[in-house]
Every structure is written in structure tokens, then in C-alpha cells.
Amino acid sequence: MDRHVEFERLHNFRDLGGYRSADGRTVRWGNLYRADSLGKLRDADWERFLELGIGTVIDLRYPWEIEAKGRVPEAGRFQYLNLSIEHRPYDQAEIDPDVDPWRYLADRFAEVTEDGVEEIRQALEAMAQAPGPVVFHCTSGKDRTGLIGAFVLTLLGVERADVLADFALTELATGRLLADWRAAHPGRVMKWPGYGRAPAVIMELVLADLETRYGSVQGYLRDRVGLSERTAERLRARLLTGDGARAGAGGDDRAT
Length: 256
Hints:
With about 260 residues, this protein is α/β, with parallel strands linked by helices. The protein is built from 10 helices and 7 strands. Helix 2 (about 65-70) links the parallel strand 4 (about 55-60) and strand 5 (about 80).
């Protein structure tokens, strides 16, 4: 099935519904979305976005990114939260092309898992408490968004293979993300060949590192992030259903 929701200007907008949990339940369709920057929404894209019935927008970018690129239009009509989970900015275009790209990115993710614990907790709590559909996003919908996506799917009991596969779906958007970067930076040269890439091995390294340090991903979220079991249960109650029926406005079931 194709969980991508089609937009003209957004390249990486996806419904997290349909994944099976370990207890046999299914993540609800049309209730939780991950995306690239909603500041790109215009015209028909904006109307398409409104059709999804989203009530909560979690923007994972730095405030300076929002100032430069804009936030979701008419932010006042949503519960809008700016929770910048990354605290050490870096320029992916300038990464040394000779470094191991996937280990490098996994190490940057590790920084986020330590620096951004307060914002990570707040993002997961907001998802658990939201009365309706939620979208969370960063700039490309890849790294920061990918990390939060992996955490929420893990909390929902989704199998590791599916968590990794969901992260890697960004690979389908890599070409358009790279084209956008080149259009926005006509005077620069992209030095790093891994820009816009999201192979599963990156998230595999990140989650393995957390398991080494905290015993499990759930242990990290409990002991380091401070996520309560009550919030985790509330998240599961809100986002899991007892059957696999597709509900809500979350795109179609076309083959990719």
C-alpha cells in the first residue's frame, strides 16, 4: 500500500496508519501523520491538507528555521507546538564526503536523544492528549521526524522491521528533496553524497545504541525522557484499533 499523501510542494507526507502491533491491534489510519515542512503549503496543497482534519501540528524545527521558511499557514486554527528536539545544528551539505555517512548521522541522532529529552517527551505527550488527527514534521521529514516516528511506533508495539521500513520510506522522496536544496542554494555545491538519504541502517544503529545504553528503547523513553506509563497507555488507546479497517482521510491504498 502507498501511505504517502500526495501534495505538489510537499514530498514526504505520510500516514502512519496500518502497522500491526505486537498484540494484534493496528495503528489507526488518518490519525497520525509525519511530514516535511508545512511552511510549503500553498493553494491546492493547503486545501488538501485541511481535508485531513488535522487539529494538532508539532513543528520539530529550530525557531530560526521557522522564521526563515515559515510555519503552517493560519497556525492559530490548530494546536500548534514548536518543539525543537535538536540542539546542535549542522549543515549536511558540508559534511565530509569521506566519513561513514550512516554512522555519522546515527551519532547526530544520538545527540538529539540526549539533548532533546524535554521536547521529545512533550511531543509524545501532545500526541497522546490530542483530541483528533496530529501531524509532526521538520524540514525534510527525515531525521528529526524520523526519530519521533520511530519512538511512537515502538511505543505502539510495532515490530522493529516495520519501524525501520517506515524510516526508509523517505528514500522515495530523496530526489525531490535534493532538487529543492539545489533550487534554494544555486551558488553552492553539495559536498555530501548522503544528503536526503534515509536507509534503514541509520535507524537500526540509533535504536541499537539506545538499547546498549538503556536496555531497550522503551527503557530510554521511560528512564531518560521521563515518559510515564500512563501517557504510553493513553497513546496506545488513542492510536490503536482492534481491526485493520482504514478510517479517516489518510490517503489511499495504491501500490507503490
